[in-house]
Amino acid sequence: MSQTVLAWATALIVVLLMGWMIAFGVILRRRGVNPNAVAERNTNWVQRFLIGGAGFLDLYFILRAPFPVLDEIVAARPSPAPWGAVGTLLIGAVLILASQAGMGRSWRVGVPQAENHVEALVTGGLNSFSRNPVYLGIMIFLIGGFLAAPGSFTAVAVIVSFLGLTIIIREEERYLRARFGAEYDAYARRVRRWM
Predict the structure, then answer these.
(1) In this structure, which topology does domain 3-190 adopt according to CATH?
(2) Lowest-pLDDT range, 22-26, 31-35, 160-164?
(3) By CB distance 3.0 to 4.6 Å, which of 24, 151, 157, 192 could disulfide with 76?
């Protein structure tokens, strides 16, 4: 696979993933659920920073196909494994999509502030293997992005995202422990944080 085809494939995967996430959020809103805790403006700076950074990174992945000069600007090198990059991106995207769908009405962007903001603790489906399958999917997706456009920009995105998601996971754990008590504690003993 050529680097040009890889750039277009990456852009297509990102557009489809973003489209799904937007559509899923709209569906939840129509069902009376506000899935965007970050938009409520009562979230911390880490959540807002990661959301903004994700948007910036997504924009880079979409625009680098029609504007290859962006790779020069961020000093991205040619991918050593284009098929591996596409495969890793797809695995991450599918994991994100399946995890969100499996969480249904309990899925949120950011840590909710209201105690009753999440109605049910989701422990089935992919959540029976990982307490954070969406975040696991995001990390796999970011590694795929790094494989597609290796360089300091995408490497920093992977590292910063891991650190930021770890902070958010700890906040979510505090929220879920306060919200669901012993039920969450039993779940946390059964299922690992990442996998």
Answers:
(1) Four Helix Bundle (Hemerythrin (Met), subunit A) (1.20.120)
(2) 31-35
(3) 151
